[in-house]
Protein: Anaphase-promoting complex subunit 5
Organism: Sphaeramia orbicularis
Amino acid sequence: MMTNGVVHANVFGIKDWVTPYKISVLALLYEMTASKIPLPERRRLNKLILPLQQGPDLTLGQFLKTVEECCPQTAYAVKRRLREMADGELRDMEYFFSILPTPFTAFDTEAYKTSVVGLFMRHMLLAYNKLSFSQVYKLYKSLQQYYHSHYAKRTDGQVEDTVGDRIDKEELDTPLHESELSKGPLSQKQAEYFLARQAYLLKNDENKALKPAALQEELNNMLKFNPDFAEAHYLNYLNSMRVQDIFLSAHSLLHYFDRLILSGNEGKSNGDEGYGRSLRYAALNLASLHCRFGHYQQADLALQEAIRIAQESNDHVCLQHCLSWLYTLEQMKGSDSAVLTEDSVKMAAHFCLPYLASLGIQSLVQQGATQGKTAHKLMDALKDTDILHWKHSLSELIEISLAQTTSIWRMYGKSTMALQQAQLLLNMSSLEPVNFGVQQNNTEAFTVALCHLAELHAEQGLYSAVSEILQHLKEQFPPHTQHAKLWMLCDLKIQFERHMNEGKYYLAEPLITAMSALNKTEGLYRKAQVLKALNRTTEAYSILQRLQVHCEKAKCTEIVIRVMLSTAELHWESSGFFTALPLLLQALALARQHHLQCLASEAMLHLAFTQLMLGVPKQALSVLHEAIEPILAHGSVMDKGRALLLTARCQIASHCSLFIHPAAAYFCKLNCKERLRDIHYLQAQLHHALGQTSKRNKSAMLFRLLDQELQSPAPPVYMRL
């Protein structure tokens, strides 16, 4: 049988078969054993041997270029050897196979029988000797096509056949194009190497793996020749998950376990329990698939099936995996899964499963953070898991722990600690071995850390550094990769805040649609902010009320507090300062209950502004003195500017001013012209009250220039924080 220039007797029975590319590799190995090569070049060629043998077939141009980079002299010798066979006769190819060193006699060369080269030569000789005469002739014709297709582009001429057509035309295949020569079936070793490499890249560096369409084409070609190749079906499942194809993912996953059971591999390695093991893990994987796509009912049914089969087989390890997915499923549904998670951690520790135990503790820490547990309790729990991670060299969980710590510190408003943890993760050397030239820095944990870094730099007005971080994220995680949504949302939020700070609401509004596609809650909140800025109060209030009800059900405490603060600002616009007070006090109590220092400080700023508007500036100053220290230590540039400006206004109301110039410096850093206009207005008022005419005129002129540039009516300064 011959397909696309590849001669083989049985796709499923022979592990290796002869192809024109493998004849080229044999020519390279022959030249390496027959000629003297300088030691540096020989070392480079030795490193090249294994990838050439195990990798997919290359075109002649690619093969010669690869060899030429290591040793030009050897590349020329290989080219000459191939030309002798392609431009000669069939007996020239026969002669080449007859002079190859025999693995059992070549004791002093690389072709010794126990070496990689010797095993490869032996397999090729055995496969060649099993070919019939017609198959040998077809192999020779395909070698001619393989060689001449490389030079056809240069000569643009027809290649004449040097061997007469002595075989029935019906047995010959159609002429091949160069791009089709590598589309034949891979040998077993080539297929295993290809699948192992692509699976490793998908896990650790998706950017370096084949694109989804290209990988799908290769897998389809592989399954065309061997439909029962179970591992190919599993890689097809992973590839389909990249593009969120639920139908093909489920189809490939079921095919994988069907082929695994039919092949008998599980039964041979695990006795009679092998088939049952495949069935229960098939149900468990199907449950995890439905969990990822949000099909909770189907996931629950598959999970119950896996639990039932595992209980019948008394498989405690599978039951622990099922319990882990069970509490994960409950979390996705929004239910309280703390009891299930604690049971999972205890049982995993009992059965000596450190990976599952650590995942359970990290899940408990995440739940504790959302429920308002104190930081020191969460950090103590993470410290205990870190000891377990380092003891068992669980590099992936160490990264997750650091990323989780970064997120917790940010949530609690400790930006300095968050920055330190993110830098610690990015500078950590992985404990995992480096395979295929891939470093372990392309996981979700690194994406989260880099997104936090970008947001922290944006809060300080360092937009050039933000651009560099986001550019790195775009290169490391292209849009088609599974973690790209994280940096996409981060990028949109940073752009939105920047446009809002600069008063460019017409640029911020189009970003809401893209943000809503990635996170509906964030999109709704930003839409309310834009509507509030455009004085569309009724629409903004309606959205905020809907959002508050939704977030209270989903227990999104941070968004609930932000919604309360935005609703209080809407009350300010209608001079409802007394109406805003209960909302602000409720938001402050909620923030303190959950230890959210950043949001608590922001609520205190709003409370102080409300007191100022109610005519009690001294009480407002006392509230500000409590809030301003954490804001200056951990707050964003905008928060620092707002706090200092509010303090200056309270001092003006009390007939003194110290903080108006630092506030102006912070707003200049953000290019926040609307806030600068307010500052110049206040400065003009202050200088007028003090009789400083020249300074008053200067501040009034700056106010007028900014007012003309913005071309929007300035809201009363006393109506905005």
In short: Residues 636-721 form one domain. Residues 1-14, 156-182, 266-272 have pLDDT under 50 and may be disordered.
